[in-house]
Structure formats: structure tokens, C-alpha cells
Design brief:
This protein has about 280 residues and is α/β, with parallel strands linked by helices. The strands form two sheets. A six-stranded parallel sheet has the order 1-4-3-2-5-6, with helices on both faces. A three-stranded antiparallel sheet has the order 7-8-9, covered by helices on one side. Helix 7 links the parallel strand 5 and strand 6. The protein has ten helices and nine strands. Bound molecules: adenosine-5'-triphosphate and magnesium ion. Adenosine-5'-triphosphate (ATP) binds next to helix 2 and strand 5.
Length: about 280
């Protein structure tokens, strides 16, 4: 496994593989790898000849008051984990390599980018789509892997790929959870042990919502109310949003339909966590 820092070297390393027809599978990450990332890497390993991951804490997707500077980083450990999973290349550029002085170009998926996390984190998805497109252009994978934990991110990336006629197949993999249900996230490392316990309300509220729906509840506002009630029982939890939408086009639903996405963002202390569940009725 090799760690590559420049665009030129990354292109040069992959050229011969691409020329001989190898399938390149790509997993973009911000590093501080956990089992969620590793599940994406394993899927890539199963379906591709070459597996490339990127580790890049992308400044353009962070707001000015957000955690860019303190975002957790540990390249040594990430490299060990990646190597164990059979990754061929880690692309780990410096910020100046991808955003040199004079950088001006951004990609924006309209409407979708202002929903859910996009509403509470203005500019976030503009940064995500820009970096993902740049990485796609540098690595030119045939397959790219994303996690369902970031449900809207996956929908937006799919939209961009379709709209811009990119020849890349997007695979979205299920949410990997801790044994007690908390969705894995690099940001979980910010949680104190008290907050770690409190963080269970996200998944617990989603599971209870699912149960109500299975028992016949179809009224979205009743379900949202129930979720709110559970989360508000946790003193350190502050709801950012609870969203109940159609899973395809993210239209808000008054009545639960056949494929419903319930997505949450909740602050636990200073840490903002997200989770979601897709319910078929
Ligand atoms: N628990 C998880 N299960 C499945 N995929 C995940 C999980 N967590 C993250 N991913 C996916 O891994 C990819 C890289 O995400 P990223 O590096 O931002 O990790 P992260 O855990 O989401 O970090 P953070 O929560 O701090 O943003 C994304 O496609 C994301 O959806
Ligand atoms: Mg993330």
C-alpha cells in the first residue's frame, strides 16, 4: 500500500492499471477510520481490482464556526487499518494541493443541497460536491462507495453523477453501528462518557418511530412529536432537525408512504450527530 500526496503522482500511479482495464474502486473519507469506513473499503475490495481511498479533511465543507481545526486525525493508524483491508493507495493531499491560491470553482446541486444538513450547515454540500467531483476527476474510478449514514450526501452525489454524465457507479452501503446502536462516526470521539450514553437517544427514537409505524401509525407529525419527546428527555440533547420525507426526492410527507426516510441531526453537548432510518410500509 502506498500513500500519495500529489495529484500528479496519483494520476501516474493509476494510469497503467486503468490502461490495462483494471476496475478502480474509490472510497472518499476524511480519515480517522472506523468500521463504517472499513465496511465501504471491504465492499470496494470485493468488486474492484484496485482500491483507492482518500483521506482529506475538506475545508470547503466546514462552516467558519465548525470543527475543521480540531477534526480528529491519525494517519498512522488509518494507514495500518487500510493496509489490513487490502487498500492499494491512500490519496492524502495537503489542502494547498487541492485548493491552491486562486482557486475559484465550485459545483452545486440545487435544491437538494439546502435540505436537512444543508439547511443547518450552509455551504456544506457545495463543499462536498466540489471535493467529490475533484477526487472523481483525479482518481477516475469506475465504482465509488458512500455510507447511508450521510443519507442526503449519497442522494446529492448520485444526482451530481447523473446530471454531469459522470461514468461512475455509486454504491451506498448500510449504516454501521456500535453494539448499542450508535451510528459510527469519527465525531463520536468528541463525546464524553456521559454524552456517549446520551447519544443513544438518536437511534432509540428512530427505532421507536419505526415501531409505531409498524403498529399502524401513519401521521408524520405524530411520529415527529414522539421522536421529539424521546430526545428531549435527554438534558444534553438539542434537536437540530427531525425530517420525515420520501426517500427518493426528499419531499416532506404528511402521511408515511411506502419508502420513508426519517433523518435526524441532534447536538449532544457541543457535538452534532446525525442518524437516519428508511422505513418500508
Ligand atoms: N457508520 C457508518 N456506516 C456507514 N458508512 C459510514 C458511517 N460513517 C461514515 N460513513 C461513510 O464514510 C464516508 C466517509 O465519511 P467521513 O469520513 O465523513 O466519516 P464520518 O464518520 O461521517 O465522520 P463525521 O461524522 O465526523 O463526518 C461517507 O460516505 C460516510 O457516509
Ligand atoms: Mg462525515
Amino acid at each position: 500500500m502506498k500513500i500519495i500526496k500529489t495529484v500528479m503522482e496519483m494520476r501516474a500511479a493509476l494510469k497503467s492499471f486503468r490502461d490495462e482495464g483494471s476496475i478502480i474502486g474509490f472510497v472518499p473519507t476524511m480519515g480517522y477510520l472506523h468500521q463504517g469506513h472499513l465496511s465501504l473499503i471491504r465492499r470496494a475490495r470485493q468488486s474492484s481490482d484496485m482500491v483507492v481511498i482518500s483521506i482529506f479533511v475538506n475545508p470547503t465543507q466546514f462552516g467558519p464556526q465548525e470543527d475543521l481545526d480540531r477534526y480528529p486525525r491519525n494517519l498512522k493508524r488509518d494507514a495500518e487499518l487500510a493496509e489490513e483491508e487490502g487498500v492499494d493507495y491512500i490519496f492524502h493531499p495537503d489542502v494547498s494541493e487541492l485548493y491552491p491560491e486562486g482557486y475559484k470553482t465550485y459545483v452545486f446541486v440545487e435544491e437538494l443541497s439546502d435540505k436537512l444538513c444543508g439547511a443547518s450547515r450552509p455551504g456544506h454540500f457545495r463543499g462536498v460536491t466540489t471535493i467529490v467531483l475533484k477526487l472523481f476527476n483525479i482518481i477516475q474510478p469506475q465504482l465509488a462507495y458512500f455510507g447511508q449514514k450521510d443519507a442526503l450526501q449519497a442522494i446529492i452525489v448520485r444526482r451530481m453523477v447523473e446530471d454531469l454524465n459522470l461514468d461512475i457507479k455509486i454504491e451506498v452501503e448500510p449504516i454501521v453501528r456500535e453494539a448499542d446502536g450508535l451510528a459510527m462516526s469519527s465525531r463520536n470521539t468528541y463525546l464524553s462518557s456521559e454524552e456517549r450514553k446520551a447519544a443513544l437517544v438518536l437511534y432509540r427514537s428512530l427505532k421507536l418511530a419505526e415501531k409505531s409505524i409498524k403498529q399502524g401509525e401513519r401521521d408524520s407529525s405524530a411520529i415527529a412529536h414522539e421522536i421529539k419527546k424521546i430526545i428531549n428527555q435527554e438534558p444534553s440533547a438539542k434537536i437540530d432537525y427531525i425530517s420525515i420525507t420520501d426517500n427518493k426526492n426528499l419531499q416532506e410527507l404528511d402521511i408515511i408512504k411506502k419508502e420513508t426516510l426519517i433523518a435526524l441531526a441532534v447536538h449532544i453537548g457541543k457535538t452534532r450527530l446525525i442518524d437516519n432510518i428508511v422505513i418500508q410500509v
